[in-house]
From TrEMBL:
It holds the Pfam family DUF6894. This is DUF6894 domain-containing protein. Residues 4-72 form the DUF6894 domain. It comes from the Bacteria. InterPro entries: DUF6894 (IPR054189). It comes from Glacieibacterium frigidum.
Amino acid sequence: MATYFIHSSLGAQTIEDPEGLDFDGLEDARQYAIGAGRHIVAEEIIEGATSVDLQLYIENEGGERLATVSFAVRVGHP
């Protein structure tokens, strides 16, 4: 098990993960971030957003960025 920190950036708002979560590996942390991102995007759309740009950054305990999960969603007509 290793501790991974999943920081998020939604528009101009950045939220740092101060505690981290334990996962068996990076792929498990990435799958968790994908699920969390889907949830965040859905909540934003439910609240009326028509454009959502979300990035989730996965870092190890040393602060090294290991992966980025990105979502870009537009709702409406072109």
